[in-house]
Write a structure and sequence with these properties.
Layout lengths: L3 H6 L6 H85 L2 H12 L14
Length: 128
Amino acid sequence: MADSSRLQSNIRPLNARIAQQIAASDAKREATRQHYARAHRRRKKQIVIVGLAIAAVFMVQLIFGQVRLHAANKALTKSENQLVAVQKSNDSLKKESKQLQDENYLKQILRDRYGYSKKNETIYNLPN
């Protein structure tokens, strides 16, 4: 087929006023197209900016959540270590309490720590 631009050049309008209206409507259509193209680019930019802002807020929330989680895990580990230490202390105190019920153990502590002696007994403290 023939090129459309070559065919258009052979056509002459019969009415000059209609030709002016067509030219004016073409210019108006082009201005409208450009206006909508600018509006579309502006909306596209706004959507991207809002999307990035929302993503940034979510990222900040995620980071702060991770920091809080790490701090909570650290506190939990510290508390668990303290619990283990207290349980060991509690076990040793229970053992000592049970031993204090024994009269021989009680006599041994009084002799070792406080220097009590039996009747007619002499205690000698030797250096280590």
